[in-house]
Amino acid sequence: MRTNTGIEGLDAMLNGGLPRGRIILISGSTGTGKTTLSMQFIYNGIKQFNEPGVYMTFEQDKEKIKADMSNFGMDLDGLGDKFRLVGGPIATVYKYKRKTKAGVEDIISEITEIVKEIGAKRVVLDPINLFLMLFDNEDERRVALATLSENLTSLGCTTLLICEVKEQTMDISRYGFEEFVVDGVIALYSIKQGQSFLQGITVRKMRGVKHHREIRPYEITDQGIVIYPTQPWLPEDEE
Ligand SMILES: Nc1ncnc2c1ncn2[C@@H]1O[C@H](COP(=O)(O)OP(=O)(O)OP(=O)(O)O)[C@@H](O)[C@H]1O
Ligand SMILES: [Mg+2]
Fold first, then answer.
1. Is 226 touching ligand 1 by the criterion CB < 6 Å?
2. Can you give the CATH number for the domain in which 45 is found?
3. Ligand 2 centre and the CA of 221: distance in Å?
4. d(C-alpha 56, C-alpha 2), whole Å
5. pLDDT tens sequence across 62-79
6. Ligand nearest to the CA of 36
7. What is the per-residue pLDDT across 143-159, written as a single tens digit (0 to 9) for each?
8. Total domain count, the chain
9. How many CB atoms neighbour CB 113 within 10 A?
């Protein structure tokens, strides 16, 4: 069973869509379009496939996200009860943790509650780095990510975890283990070429799916992310 992202080029690279109920890492450096792509996944889910969605931000102001997304033609307020935008600045998360000594279970139960409330089938956590920063060492981070993933899978949600990576690297995660815990990895690259940055997207892994492996060009347009699944990424690749 597949979950269409509704982003045509991406569904083509996946030969149909994301594996339903799985956990996918969306990795990329700053400004590569992680938030835009992930919101399109939620927005298209509601508009085209009648699947409610939850977008949890650990960092950005909710009103700013709404304003930014309206530039791509996404009216988040117009989605009504099928959509929830949760969260806010990380400071709140830290305060919350200190005040209540909240652990992974508390954060998970908060997500679970919202997912159940609206019957969400799609979930985005943006960015997962800040969630993982709440834990003190690698063992705890791994357990937290695995527990979070298991819970979202058991709720039947197809989930995108956004992962911020450093500039100008081919790294796909912050701590170096995230890609092993999840079911799939989609990487957004922005590599300096001459006087500009070339943007490319690739499916690094997708358990259970026969997907394309090439890096393909994409653009951020007034309609959001547009992927060109048959065009070469670098000029040298041209035949
Ligand atoms: N209408 C538009 N047309 C083309 N590009 C745009 C448009 N609006 C915004 N952009 C570009 O898209 C980028 C925003 O993408 P987005 O916020 O999804 O990236 P991100 O990877 O989530 O970034 P961050 O690191 O801030 O989280 C902007 O920085 C800008 O470069
Ligand atoms: Mg973002």
1. no
2. 3.40.50.300
3. 16
4. 23
5. 999 999 999 999 999 999
6. 1
7. 999 999 999 999 999 99
8. 1
9. 9
